Structure formats: structure tokens, C-alpha cells
Amino acid sequence: MNGIHDVGGMHNMGRIVHDGIEMPFRERWEGRSRALGQVMRPFRPEKRRKNFRYLYEMVPPLDYLRMSYYEKLFDVFVQGLIEDRTITQAELASGRPARGLQRETPRITPAMVVQRFSNTKSTSLRRDDVQVSAGFVAGQPVRARNINPVGHTRLPRYLRGRIGVIARDHGVFDFQDTDSQGYALADDPQHVYTVRFEARELWGADASSRDCVHAELWEKHLERV
After folding, report:
1. pLDDT exceeding 70 applies to what percent of the chain?
2. Tag placement on the chain: N or C end, fewer CB within 10 Å?
3. DSSP category for residue 184
4. Residue among 134, 201, 199, 189 at smallest CA distance from 166
């Protein structure tokens, strides 16, 4: 979808300020929310879930610009818990579980958080179990398709319609675009490529001739020139 989250290449968005602080968490609540999001995954009901990035993109534009990274992350996490009926709005407001329910007994301890992070496996979407022919080869010019999907897509808006060159084929991965409701599309493993785009192709003659952008794109995001 096209929204406030997809502002790559846009002008007048203000300076990018780097204050030199390299700590992963600036406030204690940020680390706590990250830990809760990770450790709660096994306890959430096993059912079809919306793509996390789709939910992220559904944050209202004014809130998206106002909220910090971890504020958005926590908001999406909480909305997922409500949607799954893991918690209710009343429980969220009170900060306490409803009486008489099984979840009234705490199921998460600090030790469980440590264990969960220690056992975290790679979330790679690579599919070595299927054979899919590559549609493009390194060095081949391609055009990023000019699409405006209503669901989540990994194709940034500022690349659409622009010509680049295949730099590398990474192999076969699960396609990550979604339908209009944020659910995964039918199983569609395909090649993912690093594509090199010259800065002047993206932003015109005023851009530096020495600069370029490399983007990792699924095969369905590309077309022959």
C-alpha cells in the first residue's frame, strides 16, 4: 500500500539527526516491550495471522510520524493481542487479567524471556526445498514494476518504474506481499535479487553520478526492459 511509512526518496521530510547514542534501548519500557513481544508468540492462538508489517503500515499517519520506533512496535503488538482475543480492551485499560479466567495465572517469567531469546532461530524465508527457475541473471537490466497494491509490498514506491541492473541472485524465498486485509498470498516461492539503481535514475540529473541504491526485490516486483 502507499502510505506515510513509504517515504523513501521524498523531499522536505527534515534532516536525519544522529545523536551518537548506540544503545539498543533508551528507556526501560522499550526493552520490556521488545521482550514481551518475543516471549508471547508461543502463547498466542495458532491461527492465520496478519502480516506484521501490514499492521505496522496501518498505524494512522499522524501517529506514525509522532511515535518512536518502539511505540509503533508496542502498539502493533497490543493490537495483535486484542485481535487474537489473548487480552480484552478492559484488561488492557486496567492492567489486570479478568477474574476467573485461566490467563489470570501469570504464564510468563523473566527466566522464560531469557530462554526464548536464547532459542530464537533464524527467521529466514529461504526455500531450499523447492526448485524455481530464475527469470533474471546478474548484469541484466530490469525495471521495477509500477504497481500500487492495497496490501503490504516489499517494493518501495520510489523505485517503481525505474530501471536497474541485477547485481546478485540470492536464491528462492517465500513471497512476502499480502492481500488487502494483510494476510499472506497463496504460497509463491520465487527468486530474490539485489538490484542496483543509479541515483540519477531515481532522482534526476542533480543526483551524484557516484551514488547508487541497492534493493533486494522479489522476482514479481521486476519486469524485463
Report:
1. 92
2. C
3. B
4. 134
